Amino acid sequence: LSEQQRRILWFYRYYCDNQNCSLPLVLGSAPSWDQMTVSEMYAVLRRWRFSNPLEALGLLTFSFPDQDIRRAAVQQIENLSNDELLEYLPQLVQVLKFEWSLESPLVKLLLDRSLQSIQVAHQLYWLLKNAENEVHFKIWYQKLLAALQFCAGKTLNNEFSKEGKLIRILEDIAKKVKAASDPKRKEVLKVELNRLQRFFQEVKVCRLPLNPALLVQGIEADSCSYFTSNAFPLKISFINANAPNGNINVIFKIGDDLRQDMLVLQIIRVMDSIWLQEGLDMQMIIYRCLSTGKGQGLVQMVPDATTLAKIHRESGLIGPLKENTIKKWFRHHHSLESSYQEAIRNFFYSCAGWCVVTFILGVCDRHSDNIMLTNAGHMFHIDFGRFLGHAQTFGSIKRDRAPFIFTSEMEYFITEGGKNPQRFQEFVELCCRAYNIVRKHSQLLLNLLEMMLHAGLPELNSIQDLKYVYDNLRPQDSDLQATSYFTRKIKESLECFPVKLNNLIHTLVQMSVTGSAKPPAPETVPQEWMMLDAEKSIKRATILGFNKKPDPLYLVQVVQTCNVVTFVEKSFDQFSKLHSHLQKQFPSHALPEFPHSWHLPFTDLEHKRVQDLNLYLKQLLSGSRKLANNELVLSFFLNWSKNTLAEDSSSVTLDPQSTDHKPGVQLVISYESTRLTIMLKHMRNIHLPDGSAPSAHAEFYLLPDPYEVSRRKTRTASKCSDPTYNEIVVYNKVTELKGRVLKLVVKSKGTFVGAVNIQLSGVQLNEEKWYALGNSVI
Questions:
Q1: Where is the PI3K/PI4K catalytic domain (predicted)?
Q2: 325, 460, 713, 729 — which has fewest CB within 10 A?
């Protein structure tokens, strides 16, 4: 806040409450710490009604040294359960720096909770152990650790001792493996792993520092290895004492400060909890990470996960530039359509979640080796050494140019190669909804980051770093404004070619290190599809005639290879769309030439089209078997799709009206204090007269408009039948809605596409609604 804003806030302090302000903000605006001002602060504190104990976290930062204020904050935090307290333990350990004695309320609270919960005691032990490395607070944290060990008792201290010994052995092995020469590194690891084997023979079982709920009884030496990055981190495969068949794989790293990774993952976990409380499951995979000392720590390995870089390499040299790389990889791993659709759904939600969290936290150094995909479809990010917008630079050029990672190959997979374009609209809606939910908790996120300002993290050490997150959260914006803003960020990310170039360079560098690329995995066709294709494949399709309606329909006789004959009616536009979809799905195939939509005057158009279309169908069905038996072709002529194989149709549709095939536009109209606001969200199924996709923009007019000053225009969405806008149009000084009409006209480079007139007096305000687009201006 500026000085003037602070003065205003302090002047109106008794008008503030938890609905319109934050208590740390009000008390932090006090002009001084003299006796009279502190008395006023106490008065505000006594009057304040906390709606949530987490509001008090901000009162424990370095900004509030007064012990009575800190005591009041701890009294609120006491209302948290042990599980809730566990989520915010890293921040509470950091603000212990500003306590004066072991008798302080916060110290007593943490020690008391460690007696109630082994999870709290365990995490508190490792956080204090790690904090001992902070030079200026080393003695203070040693005292706190001694107090915890005094309270913990003999059994728990024995556990701490075993875990400490395990970490020391791992540290020693990692150093020796890193120091060894390349030819001897594997042999050194093999010899040193014997020390771990002897350790487990001695202690029998040990809890993993990553999670005290995990009890391990040994290692599987053959599954242990190291990674070939600069630090040569170890991959250790522990034998689970509670489930011997399920090993627990972890990475032990030296030379990396994992405290920043811990913080980023913790904040992401908090955001995921916020979404789940709102009933929104973003299918987030958030792995565990623990710093166990200066420049060392443990990282959980997620099973059945592959880096995007490896997927790109499997697809050849230019894998990062291909649109269908991710789609082909998932299709290869899912023979059943039901599991493939479930993978799309998992990717749809998790990708949206990671777009939001990486944008808010400004996570940088995003290349294809830092993004992972599970076989089940979940996407997640790893390695958070750079965040809060601290991107690497080449000269004056930032390496991270996009707001976050959302590429055209991700869109291609979500929309199944353009077959379901409205899924992109649903993806944008999901991202914006998740973003707006998190924004409501901006103060909590900023408090958590502020409490870590003195943790010695390299990229979180000033108020400017907090301002970066504040600017990304935009708490001052309305939900409509934030939706419009985040939609622009999605489009910026989607159109950012340097991201693909960065991935390509990264892939080429990795290939030069590890050798040439592996040949791409063969594209397998599930056996049940092959059987079904044999039964359902089409021998020929012939147009027998047409009816002379305003929009003629052609009667098509379809003969299958099993000699079953069926009939369907199709329009010329439907044939045109089929050809367009085939072009997108098979860009490298030579398709038959499609008949022109235009014709010479005085010719018998429909009879000519019957001849041309029959020639097209003959060439299409007698050509490539892959084309002729494609799902698009089969569903077009037989009203059948492979989705009928699905045992459970796992639709990712968020909008129940998205199956409507009529042209439409989705609007949100709001009206408050003579201000009329219209948000244009999406359009669907819009086409030019020749059936092609328009480059559409919308024009708004508020009628009556005698002076013709009400025209507003949106940006143009290039060549898209289902464009997304999320743009806001505002009319001020609208005294009433009665008698006013909103006219919306859709055009494409001057060509009329559709229009709708909306009587504003009968509109449901502040609700998303689809309006049908007519084919003329009324």
A1: 220-498
A2: 713
